[in-house]
Amino acid sequence: METQPNHRRPQPEGSAEGGSHLLVGGAMPSTYEISGALSVKDHFRHVHAQRFAETIASPANVYFATDAVAHALVLRIRGALNDTEVESIESAVAELSQKWARAGAIFQRVRYGVRSFVPVGLVGHLDLLVVLADEQTQLEAILRRQARILEQFMPSRRGLAARGN
C-alpha cells in the first residue's frame, strides 16, 4: 500500500488492496488521535472510506487503507481538536462502524497523551467487548493484590544486609 500526502489519488476499485489515502490539513500539533482496524461487510468499497474521510477531514488529518480481499478498513484520525470536534469524529466513527462493520473492534484513542480504548462495531459485539474490558480490569486488580501479598513473603533487603548476605 502506498501513501501519497497532500493530494488525492484514484485507486483501482477491484484491486486486492483498495489503496491508501491521506488527507493532510497542514502541520499541526496533535491533541487527539484515534486508530484501529475494522472488519467490514463484503460490499464495502474504497469509495465508502473515501467519502467518510472527506466528511471529517476538515478539522483532522485522516489516513485510511482498505483491503477488498480481507474486507478490512484501517483508520487513523488525528489533529489538534477541541472537545466538540472529538465528539463529532467519534460519533462519525461509531456511525460508520454500525453501518459497515462485520464484528466489533477496539480502537486506540490518545487524547492529550492519555491512552484509552474505544469499542466500535456491532452493538452485540460492543456489549461483549465492554464486559471483557471490565473483566480485564478486575483481573489486573487481582494480580496487583497477589503481587503485594507475595512481596510480603520476600525477605526485606534490610534484613538481608543485617545478616551479611
How is this structure best described in words?
This protein is an alpha+beta fold. It is built from four helices and six strands, in the order ββαββαββαα. Strands 1-3-4-2-5-6 form a six-stranded antiparallel β-sheet. A hairpin with a 2-residue loop joins strand 5 (105-111) and strand 6 (114-120). It is elongated. The model is unreliable at 1-17 and 20-27 (pLDDT under 50).
Descriptive terms for the model:
165 residues, alpha+beta, S-adenosylmethionine decarboxylase, six-stranded antiparallel sheet, 6 strands, 27% strand
Question: Based on the structure given, which CATH architecture of the domain at 17-121 is correct?
Answer: 4-Layer Sandwich
Query: How is the main sheet built?
Result: 6 strands, antiparallel
What topology, given as strand order, has the largest sheet? Answer: 1-3-4-2-5-6
Mean pLDDT: 80
Strand tally: 6
Written as H for each helix and E for each strand, in order along the chain, the element string is EEHEEHEEHH
Report the radius of gyration as a whole number of Å.
Answer: 22 Å
**Tally of helical segments:** 4
Binned strand content: 25-35%
